[in-house]
Design brief:
This protein has 326 residues and is of the alpha/beta class. Helix content is 49%, strand content 8%. Helix 6 crosses helix 7, helix 7 runs antiparallel to helix 11 and helix 8 packs across helix 10. The relative contact order is 0.13. This is DUF4435 domain-containing protein.
């Protein structure tokens, strides 16, 4: 087994990506190198990367398994030897700016303008494409109504999530070891049949925080400190800068699920009645792929237009390497 094959099987070793990079970087070839936090990050950025850089370049991708390891790889590289525009790093902002965390900053390090990559995906344009391309809804008026509901209720959801977002900041600020994936937003909120965000009522939990603290097995909760954080978050616009991407992605999934389970059956009944009375038939709506919380990111991410900040970052480095001779 070659060293490269061994490293491919040992991706959790911190040095693995760095050693692969040293092997694959060619000073005389058109190779480009991209470091990511995880596999989802790689799948998110790759289409944008290939849309910007010419096809005659060879791409090498390195999944580092965590933001700290992305930064470790950045620090390990001797930048007096390697060209920064040929070696790019991609990270989620998370709460780093809000918590005033020190981290490497350089021209070849991209940090999302929002909490994470998931926040980019949660927008009405992506929901529009979902309705048209994956549900085969063709009525523009129906789509515009659903999109407006999406926009309105996303704002409602964001406001309802403010106290939870403040609690997340509180936990991170105090370095409490809380696994944020241990509680499910669907156990706190639901999207009603009329596409409204509603809070779920549980007999065993008086408040969402009782559920959250039970699920995460924590008692970390200082009302005064959380309230102070909440007031500061209100001043930050847009909310995507502090609202955890995975929580916002739940909202997109819930709206997609409502379209499938509630809106499409209604539309198909209307189309059925129309077709029975008219010689020119309308095509029924249908879902072409199974949408689940586990796959919605992979399914919808390719339908996102390239965000401006990502485009600017990639274009800047493309311009930097255009003049290079090999």
């Amino acid at each position: 087994m070659t060293l490269l094959n061994t490293l491919n099987e040992a991706v959790n070793i911190p040095e693995a990506a760095y050693i692969k990079f040293l092997q694959q970087y060619k000073f005389t070839d058109k190779t480009l190198h991209f470091f990511f936090e995880g596999l989802e990050d790689q799948s998110f950025y790759v289409n944008f990367i290939k849309a910007v850089f010419p096809k005659d370049y060879i791409f090498h991708f390195y999944v580092c398994n965590g933001k700290d390891k992305v930064f470790t790889n950045y620090k390990d590289i001797n930048w007096t030897t390697y060209n920064k525009s040929r070696v790019l790093f991609f990270t989620d902002k998370d709460l780093d700016d809000i918590l005033e965390k020190t981290k490497p900053v350089d021209d070849n390090i991209f940090a999302t303008q929002y909490y994470s990559i998931e926040n980019y995906l949660v927008c009405s344009d992506v929901y529009d494409r979902f309705l048209r391309e994956l549900c085969f809804i063709t009525d523009d008026e129906v789509i515009e109504d659903l999109k407006q509901s999406f926009i309105d209720e996303l704002e409602v959801f964001t406001k309802k999530m403010l106290s939870i977002s403040a609690w997340v900041v509180y936990c991170r600020k105090n370095n409490f070891l809380v696994e944020l994936d241990d509680f499910n937003i669907s156990n706190i909120f639901t999207i009603s049949k009329d596409f409204k965000v509603k809070r779920k009522v549980h007999k065993e939990y008086k408040t969402p925080f009782e559920y959250i603290c039970t699920s995460t097995k924590t008692k970390h909760y200082d009302f005064k400190e959380i309230k102070d954080i909440l007031q500061k978050l209100k001043l930050i616009k847009p909310a995507k800068k502090y609202l955890r991407g995975k929580y916002e992605l739940w909202f997109l999934y819930a709206f997609c699920e409502n379209a499938i389970k509630i809106k499409i059956p209604i539309l198909n009944e209307e189309i059925k009645r129309y077709n029975a009375q008219n010689p020119v038939k309308k095509t029924k709506c249908k879902v072409t792929i199974s949408i689940k919380p586990e796959n919605i990111f992979q399914i919808l991410a390719p339908r996102l237009s390239m965000p401006e900040d990502i485009s600017n970052f990639l274009e800047k480095h493309l311009n930097n390497i255009k003049s290079l001779t090999y």
